Amino acid sequence: MRIISGFLKGKGVFPPAGYKARPTTDFAREALFDILDNEYEFDDLKVLDLFGGTGAISFEFISRGVGHVWCVEMAPAHAAFISSAAKELGVAEKITMVRHNVFDFIPLCKEKFDLVFADPPYALDGLERLPDLVLGAGIMHPGAYFILEHGSEHSFSSHPAFVKERKYGHVHFSFFEATSE
With a threshold of 0.85, does the pTM exceed it? Predict the structure, then answer.
């Protein structure tokens, strides 16, 4: 997979054969960042990438100028790959790799973020709890987006913090907005 835009544009991130993560498709990733480009100034943002997988989303944010990305990934091999890829891309100082279970990490997190993105396995037990967990943890600045990637089997449109949903093939992005503290 290749980074779509920014100072790393065109650079490849290639997980080894047998890698078990499902990366966000290039088409969906490009569409997501087109939306975000219109709503955010990326310079110096603090971003949390939950279920880091291949690191594609983290690297795309870094390439577009965010200040720092915290990437949470539980699988040791995936976390090691993301760390290694960050070094190869020369951006290791822009990413904090956290090897932890997302559901356990969120209540422990003491940082505040300008944007939180989550791309869990679509069949993950507890996926429907993620908006409440993230939005209720006090880890987001007021007005910040929590973006959840999911399949068509879930709908979050009745959630009180739901803002919008965008669909790109089988990929759905639900956007939620953090309320004031």
Answer: yes
Dihedral over alpha carbons 38, 170, 12, 88 (to 10 degrees): 80
DSSP 4-33: -SSTTTT-B--PPTT----PPPHHHHHHHH
Q: Which domain holds residue 100?
A: 38-119+142-170
Q: How many CA atoms lie within 13 A of 53 on its CB side?
A: 24
CATH classification at residue 108: 3.40.50.150
pLDDT 10s digits, 97-108: 999 999 999 999
Cα–Cα distance for residue pair 164/176, rounded to 1 Å: 7
Largest distance between two CA atoms of the chain: 45
Is residue 70 within 8 Å of residue 118, measured between CB atoms?
A: no
Give me the number of domains the chain comprises: 1
